[in-house]
Amino acid sequence: MKLTEGVEWAVHCCVVLSQAEGPVSTTRLAEFHGVSRTYLAKHLQQLSRAGLVRSTPGRDGGYELTRPAAEVTLLEIVQAVDGAESAFRCTEIRQRGPLAASKEVCRKACGVAQAMAAAERAWRTSLAGVTVADLAAGVTADVGPATFDRLRGWLADA
Amino acid sequence: MKLTEGVEWAVHCCVVLSQAEGPVSTTRLAEFHGVSRTYLAKHLQQLSRAGLVRSTPGRDGGYELTRPAAEVTLLEIVQAVDGAESAFRCTEIRQRGPLAASKEVCRKACGVAQAMAAAERAWRTSLAGVTVADLAAGVTADVGPATFDRLRGWLADA
DNA sequence: GTAACGTGGATAAGTTCTATCCGCGATACT
DNA sequence: AGTATCGCGGATAGAACTTATCCACGTTAC
């Protein structure tokens, strides 16, 4: 089981956007995080399509959060970038083979699929309990409030 | 985020093994589930290496559970087949770029990684709460107790 | 001795992830 | 008007992983 690396990039970008005062361009976000500009652009477009960020085209354009940081959950970011499909996909093994279960029995989900789904619900619930604001507060607690001031200063520099 | 398809095969195999009276061969398990024999063999070897099943070589050989079904959890099977690595891998983005965090600050895990780890713990806890015996009981409840009798009969047939 | 079995390695095809480039339309400054 | 900067979507290519098969080997029962 593996999440795409873009998830990490996107989450960090959202934290940065939560601290910015205006739109932040892909170029700036990529430079700040030390990652590929062209590839990060793809992930930001996914956030945009998911409605988590708003984009401003043209010069001085860029991205900003569409909602307050306290209303953007980790789950939303993960699903925007990695997709919302469940990790386990039931291929209905029980309907194959010599002792295949009947169609009628299989209207109800197989027990394995149910257990897997329950685990994924627990995972999603946990992620839904963390917001971008929480993550930003964590950074402040860990490295001090001056960090985001320096970030804003760096973003303001041409 | 995606689990390999082998996970589904392996779980169903463990349920079958919990109902068998002796070793069940790869050939029989593959036939029963209607899946590729050679590929299923690989997954069964993973279960064997993880110590969840014991293998008997030679004619009349095959696999059997090493423990009572009530003591084999879904989590163990998933991790045996899919690996125990966490889905989210922190690449320490915060240590890159122009405002890179210092090494000292980074002895503590980044907040994003912590939140992701908590979610995966919730997922694992959920999976660890389901045993092969639970899954077998679910089958009995869903399709009736005769199902496993038919399975044992089929396994006994040459 | 022979047939059935698990094991590990080599191999190959298919799919997804990572990454880049291009042309397009939008915007701001000169 | 012209130009530089921006986001958007499509095409593309390489890397990594998943899926699948085959073979040589040692083991066991008849």
UniProtKB/TrEMBL annotation, chains A, B:
Domain of life: Bacteria
Listed Pfam families: Rrf2
MF annotations from Gene Ontology: DNA-binding transcription factor activity
Protein name: Rrf2 family transcriptional regulator
A single GO cellular-component term on record: cytosol
Regions that span the bilayer: none
Species of the source: Nocardioides marmoriginsengisoli
